[in-house]
Design goal:
The chain is α/β, with parallel strands linked by helices. Helix content is 48%, strand content 15%. The N terminus is likely disordered.
Length: 248
Protein backbone atom coordinates (compact mmCIF):
# COMPACT_ATOMS: atom_id res chain seq x y z
CA UNK A 1 0.00 0.00 0.00
CA UNK A 2 1.28 3.47 -0.87
CA UNK A 3 0.57 5.63 2.16
CA UNK A 4 0.19 9.42 2.15
CA UNK A 5 3.47 10.83 3.41
CA UNK A 6 2.45 14.50 3.49
CA UNK A 7 0.26 16.29 6.02
CA UNK A 8 -3.34 15.16 5.58
CA UNK A 9 -4.44 18.78 6.10
CA UNK A 10 -3.47 19.50 2.49
CA UNK A 11 -6.47 17.47 1.25
CA UNK A 12 -9.75 19.33 0.73
CA UNK A 13 -11.72 16.32 1.92
CA UNK A 14 -10.02 16.59 5.31
CA UNK A 15 -10.29 20.38 5.58
CA UNK A 16 -13.92 20.50 4.50
CA UNK A 17 -14.79 17.69 6.87
CA UNK A 18 -13.34 19.62 9.80
CA UNK A 19 -14.97 22.88 8.70
CA UNK A 20 -18.31 21.17 8.22
CA UNK A 21 -18.17 19.58 11.65
CA UNK A 22 -17.53 23.00 13.21
CA UNK A 23 -20.26 24.60 11.10
CA UNK A 24 -22.83 21.98 12.07
CA UNK A 25 -21.96 22.32 15.74
CA UNK A 26 -22.51 26.09 15.61
CA UNK A 27 -25.63 25.69 13.50
CA UNK A 28 -27.03 23.20 15.99
CA UNK A 29 -26.75 25.80 18.76
CA UNK A 30 -28.37 28.49 16.60
CA UNK A 31 -31.24 26.23 15.56
CA UNK A 32 -31.79 25.18 19.13
CA UNK A 33 -32.26 28.83 20.10
CA UNK A 34 -34.60 29.36 17.15
CA UNK A 35 -36.63 26.31 18.13
CA UNK A 36 -36.79 27.42 21.75
CA UNK A 37 -38.08 30.83 20.65
CA UNK A 38 -40.73 29.15 18.47
CA UNK A 39 -39.71 31.30 15.49
CA UNK A 40 -40.35 28.31 13.23
CA UNK A 41 -43.46 26.17 13.56
CA UNK A 42 -42.59 22.68 14.81
CA UNK A 43 -43.20 20.84 11.49
CA UNK A 44 -40.77 23.17 9.73
CA UNK A 45 -38.08 22.63 12.35
CA UNK A 46 -37.63 19.00 11.29
CA UNK A 47 -37.63 19.94 7.60
CA UNK A 48 -34.98 22.63 8.19
CA UNK A 49 -32.72 20.22 10.10
CA UNK A 50 -32.96 17.49 7.46
CA UNK A 51 -32.38 19.98 4.67
CA UNK A 52 -29.20 21.33 6.24
CA UNK A 53 -27.89 17.82 6.89
CA UNK A 54 -28.52 16.89 3.26
CA UNK A 55 -26.67 20.02 2.11
CA UNK A 56 -23.67 19.19 4.30
CA UNK A 57 -23.47 15.64 2.91
CA UNK A 58 -23.80 16.91 -0.66
CA UNK A 59 -20.94 19.40 -0.22
CA UNK A 60 -18.75 16.73 1.36
CA UNK A 61 -19.30 14.31 -1.51
CA UNK A 62 -18.22 16.95 -4.02
CA UNK A 63 -14.70 16.95 -2.57
CA UNK A 64 -12.45 14.22 -3.94
CA UNK A 65 -11.05 11.84 -1.39
CA UNK A 66 -7.30 11.13 -1.29
CA UNK A 67 -6.32 7.84 -2.83
CA UNK A 68 -4.95 5.84 0.10
CA UNK A 69 -4.52 2.58 -1.76
CA UNK A 70 -2.69 3.42 -4.95
CA UNK A 71 -1.35 0.43 -6.81
CA UNK A 72 2.40 0.27 -7.25
CA UNK A 73 3.96 -1.25 -10.33
CA UNK A 74 4.78 -4.78 -11.42
CA UNK A 75 8.41 -5.74 -10.81
CA UNK A 76 10.29 -8.67 -12.30
CA UNK A 77 12.90 -9.91 -9.85
CA UNK A 78 15.09 -12.78 -11.00
CA UNK A 79 18.20 -14.71 -10.03
CA UNK A 80 21.10 -15.25 -12.40
CA UNK A 81 22.05 -18.62 -13.86
CA UNK A 82 19.79 -21.56 -12.92
CA UNK A 83 19.41 -24.85 -11.10
CA UNK A 84 21.44 -26.50 -13.87
CA UNK A 85 23.99 -23.67 -14.29
CA UNK A 86 25.73 -22.80 -10.99
CA UNK A 87 27.50 -19.74 -12.36
CA UNK A 88 30.72 -18.76 -10.58
CA UNK A 89 31.90 -21.07 -7.80
CA UNK A 90 34.09 -20.62 -4.73
CA UNK A 91 34.68 -24.03 -3.22
CA UNK A 92 31.23 -25.39 -2.43
CA UNK A 93 29.60 -21.96 -2.70
CA UNK A 94 27.64 -21.45 -5.92
CA UNK A 95 26.65 -18.12 -7.40
CA UNK A 96 23.21 -19.43 -8.38
CA UNK A 97 22.42 -20.35 -4.77
CA UNK A 98 23.51 -16.98 -3.38
CA UNK A 99 21.46 -14.95 -5.83
CA UNK A 100 18.35 -17.09 -5.31
CA UNK A 101 18.47 -16.22 -1.61
CA UNK A 102 18.90 -12.56 -2.50
CA UNK A 103 16.03 -12.69 -5.00
CA UNK A 104 13.74 -14.19 -2.38
CA UNK A 105 14.70 -11.57 0.21
CA UNK A 106 14.10 -8.64 -2.17
CA UNK A 107 10.79 -10.17 -3.24
CA UNK A 108 9.71 -10.43 0.40
CA UNK A 109 10.27 -6.73 1.02
CA UNK A 110 8.65 -5.64 -2.24
CA UNK A 111 5.49 -7.65 -1.63
CA UNK A 112 5.38 -6.43 1.94
CA UNK A 113 5.25 -2.89 0.51
CA UNK A 114 2.44 -3.75 -1.88
CA UNK A 115 4.27 -4.30 -5.16
CA UNK A 116 3.31 -7.10 -7.48
CA UNK A 117 6.33 -9.27 -8.24
CA UNK A 118 7.14 -11.84 -10.91
CA UNK A 119 9.96 -14.30 -10.20
CA UNK A 120 11.84 -16.95 -12.13
CA UNK A 121 11.01 -19.49 -9.46
CA UNK A 122 10.01 -19.82 -5.81
CA UNK A 123 12.07 -21.12 -2.93
CA UNK A 124 15.23 -22.72 -4.32
CA UNK A 125 13.85 -22.86 -7.87
CA UNK A 126 15.89 -20.87 -10.39
CA UNK A 127 14.65 -21.04 -13.96
CA UNK A 128 16.97 -20.52 -16.96
CA UNK A 129 17.69 -17.11 -18.48
CA UNK A 130 15.24 -17.73 -21.33
CA UNK A 131 12.39 -17.96 -18.83
CA UNK A 132 13.55 -14.88 -16.91
CA UNK A 133 13.64 -12.75 -20.05
CA UNK A 134 10.04 -13.63 -20.90
CA UNK A 135 8.93 -12.20 -17.55
CA UNK A 136 10.24 -8.72 -18.35
CA UNK A 137 7.49 -7.86 -20.83
CA UNK A 138 4.75 -5.89 -19.09
CA UNK A 139 6.89 -5.10 -16.05
CA UNK A 140 7.57 -1.56 -14.88
CA UNK A 141 11.06 -2.59 -13.75
CA UNK A 142 13.14 -5.76 -14.04
CA UNK A 143 16.24 -6.61 -12.02
CA UNK A 144 18.42 -9.72 -11.98
CA UNK A 145 21.09 -10.55 -9.42
CA UNK A 146 24.54 -12.00 -10.05
CA UNK A 147 27.87 -12.39 -8.28
CA UNK A 148 31.07 -11.32 -9.99
CA UNK A 149 34.26 -13.39 -10.18
CA UNK A 150 37.88 -12.77 -11.12
CA UNK A 151 41.21 -14.57 -11.13
CA UNK A 152 42.50 -11.94 -8.69
CA UNK A 153 41.31 -12.63 -5.15
CA UNK A 154 41.52 -8.89 -4.48
CA UNK A 155 38.92 -7.84 -7.08
CA UNK A 156 35.92 -6.34 -5.33
CA UNK A 157 32.99 -3.97 -5.60
CA UNK A 158 29.40 -3.60 -6.73
CA UNK A 159 28.12 -2.65 -10.17
CA UNK A 160 24.86 -2.59 -12.08
CA UNK A 161 24.83 -3.19 -15.83
CA UNK A 162 22.09 -1.29 -17.64
CA UNK A 163 21.23 0.73 -20.71
CA UNK A 164 21.92 4.50 -20.57
CA UNK A 165 18.28 5.38 -19.90
CA UNK A 166 18.48 3.39 -16.65
CA UNK A 167 21.77 4.92 -15.48
CA UNK A 168 20.34 6.74 -12.46
CA UNK A 169 18.39 3.72 -11.22
CA UNK A 170 21.46 1.53 -11.75
CA UNK A 171 23.58 3.89 -9.67
CA UNK A 172 20.98 4.03 -6.90
CA UNK A 173 20.80 0.24 -6.76
CA UNK A 174 24.58 -0.13 -6.63
CA UNK A 175 24.88 2.47 -3.88
CA UNK A 176 22.21 0.68 -1.84
CA UNK A 177 24.06 -2.64 -2.06
CA UNK A 178 27.52 -1.16 -1.51
CA UNK A 179 26.42 0.78 1.57
CA UNK A 180 24.73 -2.26 3.09
CA UNK A 181 27.65 -4.60 2.44
CA UNK A 182 30.48 -2.15 3.06
CA UNK A 183 31.72 -2.47 -0.52
CA UNK A 184 33.00 0.00 -3.09
CA UNK A 185 31.34 1.13 -6.31
CA UNK A 186 32.70 0.04 -9.67
CA UNK A 187 32.27 1.78 -13.02
CA UNK A 188 30.51 5.15 -13.18
CA UNK A 189 29.36 5.45 -9.57
CA UNK A 190 28.06 1.91 -9.76
CA UNK A 191 26.73 1.98 -13.32
CA UNK A 192 28.26 -0.08 -16.11
CA UNK A 193 27.17 0.86 -19.62
CA UNK A 194 26.48 -2.41 -21.40
CA UNK A 195 28.47 -1.23 -24.41
CA UNK A 196 31.53 -0.92 -22.14
CA UNK A 197 31.02 -4.22 -20.36
CA UNK A 198 33.49 -7.03 -20.96
CA UNK A 199 30.49 -9.34 -21.22
CA UNK A 200 29.24 -7.62 -24.37
CA UNK A 201 25.54 -7.36 -25.12
CA UNK A 202 23.42 -9.11 -22.51
CA UNK A 203 20.00 -10.47 -23.44
CA UNK A 204 18.46 -9.50 -20.09
CA UNK A 205 19.66 -5.91 -20.42
CA UNK A 206 18.63 -5.72 -24.07
CA UNK A 207 15.12 -6.69 -22.99
CA UNK A 208 15.02 -3.69 -20.63
CA UNK A 209 16.30 -5.23 -17.41
CA UNK A 210 19.13 -4.31 -15.07
CA UNK A 211 21.77 -6.74 -13.79
CA UNK A 212 23.27 -6.13 -10.35
CA UNK A 213 26.63 -7.70 -9.61
CA UNK A 214 26.37 -7.93 -5.82
CA UNK A 215 30.08 -8.48 -5.22
CA UNK A 216 32.88 -10.91 -5.98
CA UNK A 217 32.33 -14.52 -4.99
CA UNK A 218 36.08 -14.99 -5.58
CA UNK A 219 36.93 -12.47 -2.82
CA UNK A 220 36.74 -14.25 0.55
CA UNK A 221 36.18 -11.05 2.53
CA UNK A 222 33.46 -9.75 0.22
CA UNK A 223 31.77 -13.16 0.17
CA UNK A 224 31.76 -13.29 3.97
CA UNK A 225 30.24 -9.80 4.20
CA UNK A 226 27.60 -10.74 1.66
CA UNK A 227 26.59 -13.84 3.61
CA UNK A 228 26.41 -11.86 6.85
CA UNK A 229 24.48 -8.86 5.52
CA UNK A 230 22.57 -9.87 2.40
CA UNK A 231 19.18 -9.33 4.06
CA UNK A 232 20.17 -5.72 4.78
CA UNK A 233 21.28 -5.28 1.18
CA UNK A 234 18.06 -6.85 -0.09
CA UNK A 235 16.00 -4.46 2.02
CA UNK A 236 18.00 -1.51 0.66
CA UNK A 237 17.48 -2.67 -2.93
CA UNK A 238 13.76 -3.08 -2.31
CA UNK A 239 13.55 0.47 -0.94
CA UNK A 240 15.21 1.86 -4.06
CA UNK A 241 12.71 0.00 -6.26
CA UNK A 242 9.76 1.07 -4.11
CA UNK A 243 10.85 4.71 -4.29
CA UNK A 244 11.39 4.35 -8.03
CA UNK A 245 7.86 3.03 -8.52
CA UNK A 246 6.35 5.65 -6.24
CA UNK A 247 8.01 8.45 -8.21
CA UNK A 248 6.28 7.49 -11.46
Amino acid sequence: MKLINESVWKFDSVKYGAYMALFLSCLHLVLQEVYNANVLPEPYQTIASLGLMFLAVLIGRKKAQPNLNQTLGLATITAGHSNTDPGAVNGKVKEADLVVNFRNAVTHYLREAGLQVKNDGTGSQNDPLSSAIKLIKGSSVAVEFHMNAATSKQANGVETIALPQDKELAQDLSVAVADALGSRLRGDNGWIDQSKSARGRLAYVNAGGLIIELGFISNEDELARFNARYWLAAKAVAKVLIDYEASK
